[in-house]
Amino acid sequence: MTYIAKPRLHHPTLQRNAVGYTRRDYEGKISTLCAGCGHDSISAAIIQAVWELDVQPHRVAKLSGIGCSSKTPDYFLGASHGFNTVHGRMPSVLTGANLANRELLYLGISGDGDSASIGLGQFAHAMRRGVRMVYIVENNGVYGLTKGQFSATADRGSRSKKGAVNNDSPVDLVGLAMQLGATYVGRGFSGDKAQLVPLIKGAINHGGAAFIDVISPCVAFNNHEGSTRSYDHVRAHNEAVSRIDFIDLAREVIAEPAPGGVIELPQADGSMMRLRKLHADHDPTDRRAAMNHMQAMAAEGEIATGLLYVDPDASDLHAVLETVDAPLSTLDESMLCPGASALERINAALR
Fold it and tell me: Is the residue at 92 inside a domain?
């Protein structure tokens, strides 16, 4: 396979963000995915989000597992830290990296096979422990690298490209994330960049475990009539529960907005997520109501997208473990090994 490198030189008139980078500086290698793959649109949304948030590329650590989705970190943030783990094991490697250096921004990129099958247990524990991360699942409902078999997220009754019908119940990662304790849960569509970019920006600035399930049609194996993960089906059945816009500073706080009003949710870094309510019966800060609303829409054959649930007072694993503010990777031997007398005091306290 021939490798084509992107040119290093950028046009001098390209717009730069507050930290001096152009949008091109957040790109990676040229994608080798199929033309039209929804995963490339997700990569573009991530690039746009971090550029608009003025994130320095070296502050980002991107981790992935195995699958078409897990190839995509090679196509964005080429100047960031990266680690491609074994199949389904991204969450545990990310957890360890997060505990060692809490100052980095962690992006966990996975797929429906990587997270809903072999990595389901890892996904569950990352959510319940509250690891501060942006966990994005690029969900196409098939195993694209092994010729299009149904994945664990494929809807019952959906048809494969060859006409086979899926008879298994789907794993709902969004519902699981809310049940397990994720404090920022959303669903997007790779074909709706206007919704996906602010959804990712809100997740980046959230103070706990943020999970986004992105419906991303596979143009090779799952973009035909009868598929519930095709572009046509998602566009026809997509109903946004919210229209979101990310703003840097708080301007007004409205506690009980009417339909069409605004909720402004404070984030850990002092920024705000601004949510405009479109449905009178959907409150994104009510976990139970969010789950009920999502299930009711699914029963009607609709796909709920947008910010489904958020806890504005979220904390992360470091707060639970009461770790020091300095990254553990920067502590010297005197801090990590305080000596025999300190160990004796600890042992005495346990007797």
Answer: yes
